[in-house]
């Protein structure tokens, strides 16, 4: 039984189809169960926080399985950047979409009762060459368990993947919320950025865990 619309159903409790409209909520229960059974623990890294909806679901699901001890939420907190390069011409996204400032997100987490659930920290700024160091600072000594990429655009995803390159390790779950945006084309968006990242890092592999909703794809990272 869900407490509210952002409550992921526990994996063991009549688990629903992830391709349903609640897929983006429940994917975190699936990932939490995967991590728990494979004995992987660490931080939850989210890129693209919006209002905080996915952060609420994530905090609930990973905390329930006790797999993530800290939650690092990264965003401009000003919405999407100006579209450049291959992102120009998107019919779906434009500058300023999903603009929620950090106090609004903090209030949202509070409203859903997850603000005190576990250490939550924020990394504010445009994704770019400094993001890798900022994320490394925020992580401290913590290994990563989940990387949730919900940044819509190729350019943004490109920076995010560069930022996490030094933190990925076998067993880390990587969620790409916008895998099927841009007509599910491999030439745009998160698909393109991910393909380029894998090419640039020989030995890196992503093995599919699940699809969710019409849009998302979950993988498990591996490295030769
Ligand atoms: C679709 S929203 C995230 C929704 C959220 N994960 C949820 O499910 O509620 C996309 C977010 O990515 C952020 N974003 C995209 N590109 C960015 C960039 N280059 N730098 C910083 N933030 C970015 C936007 O500010 C926005 O909050």
From TrEMBL:
GO terms for biological process: methylation. Signal peptide: none annotated. Keywords: Methyltransferase, Transferase. It holds the Pfam family TylF. GO terms for molecular function: methyltransferase activity. This is Macrocin-O-methyltransferase (TylF).
């Amino acid at each position: 039984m869900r407490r509210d619309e952002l409550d992921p159903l526990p994996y063991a409790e009549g688990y629903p189809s992830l391709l349903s409209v609640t897929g983006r909520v429940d994917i975190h229960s699936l990932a939490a169960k995967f991590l728990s059974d494979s004995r992987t623990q660490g931080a939850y890294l989210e890129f693209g926080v919006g209002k905080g909806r996915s952060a609420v679901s994530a905090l609930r699901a990973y905390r329930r399985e006790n797999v993530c001890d800290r939650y690092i939420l990264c965003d401009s907190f000003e919405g999407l950047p100006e579209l450049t390069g291959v992102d120009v011409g998107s019919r779906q996204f434009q500058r300023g979409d999903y603009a929620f400032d950090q106090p609004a997100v903090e209030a949202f987490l509070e409203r859903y009762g997850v603000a005190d659930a576990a250490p939550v920290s924020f990394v504010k700024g445009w994704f770019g060459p400094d993001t890798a160091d900022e994320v490394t600072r925020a992580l401290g000594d913590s290994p990563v368990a989940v990387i949730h990429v919900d940044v819509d655009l190729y350019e943004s995803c490109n920076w995010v993947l560069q930022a996490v390159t030094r933190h990925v390790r076998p067993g880390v779950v990587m969620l790409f919320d916008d895998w099927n945006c841009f007509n599910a084309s491999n030439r745009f968006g998160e698909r393109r950025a991910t393909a380029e990242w894998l090419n640039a890092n020989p030995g890196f592999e992503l093995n599919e865990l699940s699809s969710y909703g019409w849009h998302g794809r979950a993988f498990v990272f591996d490295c030769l």
